[in-house]
Amino acid sequence: MLSTVFLKKHPFQLFVLLMCPLFNWAQEKQPNIIFVLVDDLGYADVGFNGSTYFETPALDALAKESLVFNNAYMYPTCSPSRAALFTGKQSFRTGVYTVPVLERGDDQENIFSRWTVGKEHPIYAEPLATAGYKSIHLGKWHIVGPYPEKELAMDWPIQQKLNQPQPGDFTWVENHKTPAVKQYYPEGRGFIKNVGGTFRGDPALEEGGYKSERGGYRAPFSNPFISPKPDDEWLTDRLASDAIEFMDNHKNAPFLVNLHFYAVHRPIKNRNDELFDKYMKKPGDPITGQGIGKNKERMASYATMVQSMDENIGRIITYLKKNNLEENTLIIITSDNGYHGIASENLNLRGSKGEIYEGGIKVPALIHWPGKVKARRTKIPISVTDYFPTLMDAANIDYKGQLDGKSLTPLFQKDKNSFKERPLFWHLASQYKNGTCSVIRKGDYKLIQFLADGKLELYNLKSDPKETKNLAQEDSKLAQNLLDELVTWRTMNEVPLPPNSMLSK
């Protein structure tokens, strides 16, 4: 107890003592947020998930102080992952099923995918802005189409897949800087600044695209939403530098840094010759298949991009530490889909980017927040839709909009049984590398139902992580139980099916 003498002699100190809980609450109410989304980074492309060929020392060090998810899931391609991430909703609600230019088949086999996420679907930056956050988006955006006005005026479902301008065609730029289209860009969706976000899913905007010398990664950048700077050299460096500059300008107020690297998406370019030579000489890993075989040269180039990405994450962590910002900063780092098969490998999982198997949807993921998150690894499966409600919880925002995910904040200190048997769902109504399908993962099991013919695949992911043995007939009762739950989910959520599907909802 404080003595009455102290209280009388030190009224200001009393005021501070009484207000401290309020100050602490205010600080907890609005932590800084950094969301790093790496493009096409596979589950095993990082050291903290077992890679011995790719080098990610900054991420590995951060992972030791973070909550690392062994079973973090996205969609098989970037467009539905980003639509679900930004909105917190299953991608079918936004009409986004895959990258439109990747679709295969006709309008009977597919519900052709949207490109633009409509304004009726708020994204997480919007409630954060209302709550006082100053926010910047850097890098890949990909939730607006090249012709959004035309696209959104179409009758849905559309009868043919959407297209995009060829590299070197910049006729779209002027329209994208008008208020009519700018509303679908970061500045119209809660961010005060956009660095490099466009309709395109890779940085290779210049003529030649992937085959061009620069590929969008080397300066001068061909991106009309990146203003040139004298020291520009490498895109990943530039995006991280702008992120640090923004944090420095807004470090006295809560900020959101949405750093969505274009790396390590194609085109695969060497960061520099020195790094390329290092990885060409480095022994590969026969366990994952990384750095060996006919793709050795391309994997070595990819390794330089992975290392560059890691170094820039390290720069951001260093900035936070030097400026005493780390303790009040929530950091989430993950990837938008599985690894690309031409640039990496993971022999421990089936499939790669574009496939509904684990190699295509399982990604590295960690959450870092000193004092709030207990560092450990967890086997709890989580979904891309969980990040939006997590950000709302962390920022103490009572968000009333529709969300399909579940806040991960209850897991920050320990695992919860309520998450262990929670079903996760996917729905792919257009074809890329797989046929159209719906998927449920519950507990250790994953059931895939292909929509055209109703074929079932059931896998025990605990005993068979490579998904080599289809148990649908052997364990028909379990398959039927999971199928019933999947069909119920589709029915309750009015999930649309392609015309050629012979299934009930």
Layout: helices, strands, pairs:
Layout lengths: L3 H6 L1 H19 L2 E7 L18 H7 L3 E7 L4 H10 L37 H6 L3 E6 L8 H6 L19 H4 L2 H4 L10 E3 L39 H15 L5 E6 L12 H9 L14 H27 L6 E7 L22 H4 E2 L1 E4 L7 E8 L3 H8 L22 H4 L3 E5 L8 E6 L2 E6 L5 E5 L15 H17 L13
Parallel strand pairs: 1-5, 1-6, 2-9, 3-4, 3-5
Antiparallel strand pairs: 2-7, 2-8, 6-8, 10-11, 11-12, 12-13
Helix pairs in contact: 9-11, 10-11
| Radius of gyration from the alpha-carbon trace, in angstroms | 23 Å
Multimerization state:
single chain
* Fraction in helix: 25-40%
As a percent range, the share of strand residues is 5-15%
N-to-C SSE string, H for helix and E for strand:
HHEHEHHEHHHEHEHHEHEEEHHEEEEH
- Average pLDDT, rounded to a whole number, is 94
Can you count the beta strands?
A: 13
Helical run tally:
15
Uncertain regions: pLDDT < 50 for 5+ in a row?
1-7, 9-27
Q: Globular, elongated, flat, extended or rod-shaped: what is the shape?
A: globular
Straight-line distance between termini: 66 Å
The biggest beta sheet, please? Answer: 9 strands, mixed
Class computed from helices, strands and strand pairing = alpha/beta
